[in-house]
C-alpha cells in the first residue's frame, strides 16, 4: 500500500473546513487508493473546535485516514505537506478599508508562505481559498522563493461551477454537456465568466443565448452568487466552496479530460495580456502534474474589456500589497 500523503487545511475549524475535511478523509480529494494524513492549522482560540472536528473524523472510521494532527504553528502544520488548502483568512469587517484587509491577510499569508518554503514536501501544491484569494496566494508565493511559483494557485472553480450550472439550466441541458467554460481574472465581483469559448452540444454557448441575457443576467448572477447565497441561507456558501476546492485539487492531480479545460487562478506568464506574475484565473488544463494555460483563443472586444477590468483590479491589489511591504 502507498504511504499516506500529508494534506494541510488552514482555518480547519471554520465552515468551509467542516465541509471539506470529511471529503478529503473519504478519498474524494486524492482518490480511493491514496491514504491521507490530515494536518489542521488553526489560530489558538479555535484549536478546541478543531479538536471537535477531529473527534468526528475519528468517528467516521475512514479507511483512508491515516492520522490527524492539529496545530496553531504553521511550521508544524506545513512540515512535509504535499497539499496545502489555505482556507483561513481575515474576512472584511464593517468599515474595514482595503489596506487594512490586505495588511491583516499579509500577517497570515506571509508566515504561511515562509513555513511552506521551509518545510513542505518537494511535490507541494497550494490552493488558496481564503479571500482575497488571488492576492493572498501572491503574498504566500512571494515568500516561498524555493517553491516553483506555479505551485501556488487560487480558487475560481466555484465561480466556474456556478457558471456551468447557470448556462446548463438556461439551455435545458445537463452540466456534463457544458465544456470549455472559463472564468477570467480575479475571484471577486469583477471576474469574467466567458461563454464565447464555452461549448454546449458542440456549438458556442454564447451563440445559443441572447447577448442581453449574457450581459445582464448570466454575468451578474455568477459574479454575485456569493451574496445571493448569504441572503437566502443567512450564512455564506461553505459546502459548495469546499466542493470546488476538492474539484480544483482533484483535477490538478488527476488531469483534465481530453479536449476540455477548467478554470483556475495561476501565476501569469503574460498570456492574454495578463501582466506576468499576477495570480489570475485562466482557461487551464492539467496533465496531472502542472497547470497549463490554454493558448490561442481569440478574444473579442467585449471579452477583452471584461478581462482587462478584472486584471486591472489584480494589478491594483498587487500594487497595494507592494506598497504595504507585504511582497
Ligand atoms: P469560512 O470557512 O466560511 O471561509 C473561510 C474563507 O474562505 C474566507 O476568507 C472566505 O472569504 C473564503 N471563501 C472563498 N470562497 C468562498 C465562498 N465561495 N463562500 C464562502 N467563503 C469563501 O469562514 P469561517 O469564519 O467559518 O472560518 C474561518 C476559520 O479560519 C476560523 O476557524 C478561523 O479561526 C480560521 N483562521 C485560521 C487561520 C490560520 O489557520 N492561521 C488564520 C485566520 C483564520 P469571505 O470572508 O470573503 O467569504
From TrEMBL:
Belongs to the LDH/MDH superfamily. MDH type 2 family. It catalyses: (S)-malate + NAD(+) = oxaloacetate + NADH + H(+). The lineage of its organism: Bacteria, Bacillati, Actinomycetota, Actinomycetes, Nakamurellales. It is an enzyme of class 1 (oxidoreductase). Substrate binds at residues 92, 98, 131, 162. SUPFAM superfamilies: LDH C-terminal domain-like, NAD(P)-binding Rossmann-fold domains. The keyword Transferase does not apply. Residues 5-148 form the Lactate/malate dehydrogenase N-terminal domain. GO terms for biological process: malate metabolic process; tricarboxylic acid cycle. Keywords: NAD, Oxidoreductase, Tricarboxylic acid cycle. This is Malate dehydrogenase. NAD(+) binds at residues 11-17, 105, 112, 129-131. Pfam families: Ldh_1_C, Ldh_1_N. Its EC number is 1.1.1.37. InterPro entries: L-lactate/malate_DH, Lactate/malate_DH_C, Lactate/malate_DH_N, Lactate_DH/Glyco_Ohase_4_C, Malate_DH_AS, Malate_DH_type2, NAD(P)-bd_dom_sf. Catalyzes the reversible oxidation of malate to oxaloacetate. The keyword Oxidoreductase applies.
